[in-house]
Amino acid sequence: MTFQTIFKSAVDWPVTPNLLDYEQTCAEFTWDAAWQEVTGLPGGKGLNMAYEAVDRHADGPRRDHVALRWIDKEGSILDITYGELKAQTNRFANVLRRLGVVKGDHVFVLAGRIPPLYIAALGILKNRSVFCPLFSAFGPEPIFQRLHRGNAKVLVTTQKQYTQKIAHQRDKLPALAAVLLADVFEHPGDGVYSLPHLMVTASEEFEIGRTNPEDDAILHFTSGTTGMPKGAMHVHDAILTHILTARYALDLHPDDIFWCTADPGWVTGTSYGIIAPLALGVTSIVDEAEFDAHRWYRQLAEQQVTVWYTAPTAIRRLMRLDIEPPLEYDLSHLRFVASVGEPLNPEAVVWGREKLHLTIHDNWWQTETGGIMIANYASQEVRPGSMGRPLPGIEAAIVRRVSPHEVELITKPGVDGDLALRPGWPSMFRGYWLEEERYRKCFVGGWYISGDLAMRDEDGYFWFVGRADDIIKTAGHMVGPFEVESALMEHPAVAEAGVIGKPNPVIGELVKAFVSLKPGYKASEELKMELLGFGRQKLGSAVAPKEIEFKQDLPKTRSGKIMRRLLKAWELGLPEGDVSTLEEA
Ligand code: ATP
Ligand code: MG
């Protein structure tokens, strides 16, 4: 047996991991059998995400169970039960229906993490329209671009967002028929409506129409880490992946208190911040406020969070600080921690074990995959620095392109190549919005080519090497930035590092590292020399950085990913390209 039953002092029930025998579950898994996980619309009218996430619980014994626990910026709490969520989302679906919004219409939501966002998302799905989330801190231009390119028919937002970012460009959005303001109580007119006003006059009864599992459900824009964000289309069928991955990779059990820290403007915040936990009937925490180390530890303690899904960038921020979490906060309920979005440096796993007394489970996926594809599991050995192994039902491989239409499988362990997935899982994107050709190019020789490079070890664990675009070719070696960044992070002074290749006439590209320091450390020539030496000692001179520059604020996407392409553009004095997702320093 490879699993251990976990007992935590404050949880009075032993929790047996959902995935006990990895090999056997993978061997026996079929997506057809996964249909047992869903109820389907009454009367055999198909599969609708919102019905699975809300109504089937509201109509059963979990009616009064808390679905969403919302904590506002000031710390006040609002609990929304499954029963209440059903009524509210029905009202919202009726609002859309009354406005003439039909199946397939694109409804955008631009709001912070407030209840109307969650109610709108699910109501949109009930109406069989397409939920298109926008990150609330976007400025006017990225919002306009996405509304325009995304063919927005309706926008749900708040008054401030609307007046500051959209009103002045409304005439350039002729397809935008209605704007619903969540915090205004009288209809302003001119196609702008008060959402609360529409909601009180709408019925709490709504019958979801026939929904084909292949009907469009969600349009998600990617993070824009490597270039112009792409619009990935997802269908209702994706919920099968959401359910199974939340059960296996996040180990969600019915009585869990789950906190996914991602914003629904990004795919993690929708797939695992809205759909998956609700589909499993658990209580999901929503914190309106932005990252703050003490606030986050306090939420984990006070809300008695049992499963926490967060991101490496947040973990690295916690690591910088001199906080001893278990001494200051009661984290005894916390049982399982997972991370996604960027490589999780081995140092972060070590930190988790030392400071949280828990292993942080890295998992890998993309906007395009719609759900977790490769993960470390509660019951399985975790190899720090590895993303883990493919989910049951997911076939992943390392391949190499041999021609425009063919790939070759790399079966030898430890060899880098393109990380590829066998198409056919339910949450796979069904297209890039308005970019058909680009979508088609992702599929080569029967595989979806992810754009990431990785390698697989002899036991089937996958190790991230880098994004294909970020790989550095130096003196005949291929160097992944992650390896160099992780090594530098082992030095006590280093908080974060971003590594690029800088063109060099002799060696092709020279490895250059931008480094931010932990509090208490000062940039100096001595420290630079020390880090260069440290890098050489850890990595060998072929791979080690030849140049180091101290940079306290590394450029990141708003979803927390280091934008190496910007470091490179700045270094070389090249155009920045699309910076719509760049986080403000
Ligand atoms: P764009 O495609 O617009 O450049 P993006 O790829 O960052 O942006 P997302 O879909 O949000 O947009 O991010 C997915 C990517 O994030 C993956 O392809 C991978 O590069 C990175 N990633 C996610 N999880 C992990 C992980 N566990 N380890 C390493 N990298 C990860
Ligand atoms: Mg991408």
Helical stretch tally: 18
Strand order of the largest sheet: 2-1-11-10-12-13-14-15-16
Poorly predicted residue ranges? 1-12
* Bound compounds: adenosine-5'-triphosphate, magnesium ion
Return the average pLDDT rounded to an integer. 95
Give the name of the CATH superfamily of the largest domain.
ANL, N-terminal domain
Shape descriptor reads globular
CATH T-level fold name of the largest domain: Rossmann fold
Ends distance: 49 Å
Radius of gyration: 24 Å
The structural domain count equals 2
Gross CATH architecture of the largest domain: 3-Layer(aba) Sandwich
Topology, element by element:
Layout: H1 22-28, H2 31-34, H3 49-58, E1 66-71, E2 77-81, H4 82-98, E3 106-110, H5 115-126, E4 130-134, H6 140-149, E5 152-157, H7 159-166, E6 178-181, E7 192-194, H8 195-200, E8 216-221, E9 231-235, H9 239-248, E10 257-260, H10 267-279, E11 283-287, H11 293-302, E12 307-310, H12 312-320, H13 325-328, E13 336-339, H14 346-356, E14 360-364, E15 374-375, E16 389-390, E17 396-403, E18 406-409, E19 417-421, E20 431-432, H15 436-441, E21 443-444, E22 447-456, E23 462-467, E24 472-474, E25 477-479, H16 481-489, E26 494-504, E27 508-517, H17 525-539, E28 547-550, H18 564-572
Parallel strand pairs: 1-11, 3-4, 3-5, 5-6, 6-7, 10-11, 10-12, 12-13, 13-14, 27-28
Antiparallel strand pairs: 1-2, 8-9, 9-20, 14-15, 15-16, 17-18, 17-19, 19-22, 21-22, 22-23, 24-25, 26-27
Helix pairs in contact: 3-4, 3-5, 3-10, 4-5, 9-10, 16-17
Bound molecules: adenosine-5'-triphosphate and magnesium ion.
